[in-house]
Amino acid sequence: MNIITPNIIQNVFPAPKWLEHSRAKVSVLFLVLLSLLFGAGRNEQFPTLPTQKNIFPFREKGLWGYIDSSGSRMIPPIYLAASRFTEGLAAVREEGKPGYGYIDQSGKYMIEARFDYAEPFKNGLAKVYLLGKPYFIDSIGKIVFEHPFVELRKIEGSTCYEGGTASGKAALLDAHGNFLTDTIYGSINDFVEGIAIVTDTSKKKIGRYDFYDGTYGAIDTAGIIIVPLHVYSTLKPFQNGFAIATKRDSTHLQCVLDRKGKIRFGQQQELWRFGYAAEGFSDGLAIIEFYAISFDSASNRSIKKVHAGVIDTLGNILFHNPEWEKMTSYSNGRAFVELPNDEWIMIDKHGKQVGENRFMEWNDGYNHCKWGEFYNGRARVKRNDHVWAVIDTTGNFVPLSYQQNPIDDCQMTHLFYAANTEEPYIIWNSTSNHQLCGNWSWVDRETIHDDLIRVVLENNRQAYINQYGKTIWMEQHYKPQNDKLNIDFMNSGYCYASSFWHPLLNGIGGWGKVKNRSNLLSPKVKKVNTNSLQLIIDTSSKADWFGYQGCKIYLANFGWGRYYFRAQNSRLYIKLQAKTPADIWKDIEYIPSSFCGNSYHAVYLPSKHYWAFKMPTYHGTYATKIRAIVTYKAKLFSEKYDTLYSNEIDAQINLAQFWRRLPYFSTGIMDPYDE
């Protein structure tokens, strides 16, 4: 039986264990972030058919089925991938089917299985892919409209779409796919108050390098230009009918624009300016920073920030205080100001302190809810005793049994998360003040208000608990039994190697990280051509790839010279390619990028040596050819890299492996990879 790894639909479960290893043993925190920060509509509750009770995806021996809120099986585990039900339908992928389709709660296919990949329904539409090209379909599976783009996005806050070209340009489309603008923008942001910020695609040359010009404009839902490009170097989203912009000319004037793009008022930055992090007007107010100008001589002056204040939409400075060093934006009629002793207090819209409590500012870097911002009359803060807490608009603390953990719910209604892996999650109902506590490594935010809440245990197994904390279902431990790897996304690079120490090489990130050093050539490494350097896929050399079927890849130097290879933390730039239906070679694996310069180094392969790697045996619905590819150079200080290809082998993959990458978020400098 050909089994897929844990569900690949992003909103279902975290990454599988083998993927953790192939990404250099990603920490539990990454799994939390991946699941919390990813997926469409993570704060929204999808409607279900009123006559149906909710059923939930569960996994058994690598396959997916559905259970009801009591844990009874409603659909047996027969799917390679399965999403949660939204709007009465769920996207599934089944062995023997040509791709993803949509089933109802009886397991009947309502939309035939024909897509490379399929996302859950939202507001009557679902995004699907055919041969890597995105489309939107309706509830009967009909494509809403054809289009010429390589990317297509439904724009929030409107009925419009953003179509993206291969060259990185974007156009605005209406609900039927008609062009509202040409492909003249670099990007089109979501619509806020009926207006979207757009960016430019033009570049300017500075020295040898080209940089994006960095100009901003704004359009409405009909594509009509509200703010033209090339006028402003910054432009914030419209809030309360106004937007903050900075002139692109030599004045660098900060302006407030109205909904027609007209300047309501402006002010030179030397006197006051909007703060760097200021997003705009909230509750009709915006935060400004006052500056003082001092002269050391007639020609030498310096500008120093003094304190913060508040301005209205007419440009009237309402109040400011020399004691206020920083301010947050207003929300729910409240803002926080920092005092000279690094403590923060809460003020109202008149600048008066609310309550007697004082707070600390703290940005944990992983929480997507802003410190001190009110949602539904509550805000997350950090008390002076370094304890996280929730307060209301009167400045009083909301009574909670657990307060040691950062709150990770923007609605301030139901979820805390662990500050470290030794502390538990707390699920909190703000209405009843009822709390659930467990040693989970992840809680699925989208299921908090469902009949069953999805959690992940410390051993990476899945489970469901009900609203009272009772475990309804728990996944049994399962280890792949020599299955072929059946996935629908691009795998990340997994070929790690190191070299013997060499004085000319920078060993940062490479030396001693892996034990896979080169070995002297042996008869088991058989040449496939006459070249001195060869990349060989040997299907006769069977190998275990994290519990899945695999074989060996050899990178062998049959010559007398030395060859050099790029590496990231000992990961070589070796990846697999496959032939597309158009008979074009295209990558089905990728090498992640690192933001840390110390990740990058070089390794070398001596004469008459080889490295051995394990690669998975893929399985899918598309029969094709596979080959491996790597770049190399024969001289260490040469800037030119040559490309080396392996022999070709017969294989089966899924079409989504040509284009789909799972999102990946860094957990810090020790895991510096982002996608």
Essential attributes:
7-stranded antiparallel sheet; 41% strand; 2 helices; globular; 675 residues; mainly beta
Kindly describe this structure.
Strand 35 and strand 36 (452-457) form a beta hairpin. Helices cover 2% and strands 41% of the residues. It is globular and about 85 Å long. The protein is an all-beta fold. A seven-stranded antiparallel β-sheet has the order 13-14-17-18-19-20-21, with no helix packed on it. A six-stranded antiparallel β-sheet has the order 1-2-3-4-5-6, with no helix packed on it.
What's this entry about, in short?
This protein is an all-beta fold and 675 residues long. It is built from two helices and 54 strands.
